[in-house]
Every structure is written in C-alpha cells, then in structure tokens.
Amino acid sequence: MTDSPAVQAPLDPKEQPILDRILIIRDKLSLLKQDKSSYIKSHDVLQLYDQLIKQVHLLNVLREEQDKPLEQNRVDYVLDDCFQLISLFFLTIGRNNEAPAVYSMTSTIKRLLDHLKEAAFYSPKDIESISHKLDSMQETLNRGRESHSPHLLKLLENRLDTCRRLLADLQSALADLSPQLTPVYERLVSILRSISAANTRSKFPVGEVQGFQGQLREIEATMVDGKFLAEDSTTPAEQHLATETITQDRRQGKIDERFRPTYDKLCDIRNQLEKLSITQAWSLRETDLYDYQRQLDRIDESRVNGNFEDQFGNKADLHAQR
Fold this sequence. Notes:
Layout: H1 16-34, H2 42-65, H3 74-92, H4 102-119, H5 124-143, H6 150-174, H7 182-199, H8 206-221, H9 239-246, H10 260-279, H11 290-301, H12 318-321
C-alpha cells in the first residue's frame, strides 16, 4: 500500500514512535481486509480502533505542546489510511450509524462537492440531497458523544465543517435562481449529465445522444433573443445560469488524447466496480472498495489546482476534465 503522493512536511523525531505504531495498525487492518476466509469480527475491528484512537490522543497532545495543531506530514496520511479502513470496517460489520462510519462518507462528499463546483453545473436538488446527508451524519456524531473518543469526534466535526463550507459556496451560486427558471435549469443539468455519461461508454450511443441533443434544441427554441422568459414575459433572475449551461461544450464521444491514459484508468475503475456490483454483490464487503478509493485518490491528487495537466503543463479544457 502506498502513501499519498502529496508533499510531506519533515517528520518531527518525537512523532516517529507514533508513526511506527500506526503503520503496524494499518498493516493489521490491511491483512484483516484481505482475509476472505471468515466473517469480519466486531471484536477485531474495535480492538484496532481503540489502538488507533490512543495514537491520535498521543499525537494531539504532542502537537498541542509544540503549538502545531495543523501539522500535516506522513503521520497524517497514514492516519487517514487507517481511518478510511476503520470507517469501512464499521460499515462492513453493520455499525453504519456509529461515528467512525462517518469518516469515509465525509471523504466521498467532499470530493463530490469539489467536483460539482469544478464541473460548474448542478441543481438545487443536488444541494438539498447533500445537505440532508450532512445533517444525518451530524445526528450520528451527536448520538456518539457518550460512546466515542472526543478526539475522533473533533476530527469528524472538522471534516463535516469543511463539507458545509463547500456546500455553502454552491448554495450561494444558486441562491437567486428564480422559481420560474428552476425547472428549466434542472432539466438542462439532467440532460447534460446524460450526455456526459454517454461519452464514457465503450461504444458511443449515437442515437441516444441525438435524442438528448434534440431535447436541448427544444429548450433552446423557447428562448427569446437569447433569454428565457417567465409566463408574464419578464426575465427571471440568474438568467446566466441557464444560458451558460445550454451553451456548454457538447463534443460527442471524444477525449483529448493527451489525457487518454488518465481517462482509460478512470473508465477501467468504473467498469471493475460495475462488474463487482453485478457479479459479486452478494459477497462484496465495504472494505473491498478501499483499493478503488485509493486509486481514485491518486488520480485526484495528480491534478494541479483542480485541473489535469499534460507533460508540458497545459491544462485540460472543461470537456476533457469532465
């Protein structure tokens, strides 16, 4: 298992014993994940969880003494590996509604929010769905205050706060979208997502995409002088959201060859996951998703300021990035 390729700050010698111990914990978690000979026992998971929380406590005390609460180095990357696995193990053993299970979900939601912002089209329904999920996760933390370590709960609170800040940014962008324009905008988002999904299929569905393109033309035909109008012929607020969405790049079934290797990796991961969900759903454990999660992490971390770059530092256009 490899660590994150992100830049790592020099390790304080006093943190070395903690790193050594969490590396051992991570190895044990990895072995437990790979063992398919028997069911995963709650006792084994909780034992490693307790060991990990003890190291988090020692690390927090050490960094508070040295006034370095926001330090990020290899210890933190290995800790993230451990917590991702612990979180997935809690889901695997059926303890979905306990605080540790929230950790991996916060990672997924943060990445989703980042990508929604980068893709530049999302609907109020997306915002509402994610908001409800974050509220549900907060309720899980609240229920766990008497039974789980305050060190874990503080870590999870910080991760939820990060997600809420990202969500607030997305909400503000749609805050003034008028009720008259909302149905049109949501339909545009749905159609463009369908076209994007079609672009990733091994065999491009020409007829299906032509149908989507026809729907876009129908919507476009309702515009007057390049604008959408309400029933009373007034111009609804936040007009640019819909007009910019309908004019977005619609290239069909093509990927910039400079980014073909990354695209092929992503398609391969998706195809493997789809195959697993169909052929091995009955025996699939949540922990089986960890390796795919980490592969996606590596691809995500290879981007520069949120964008993919070729070997000469040229950025991918929006079509390739999506």
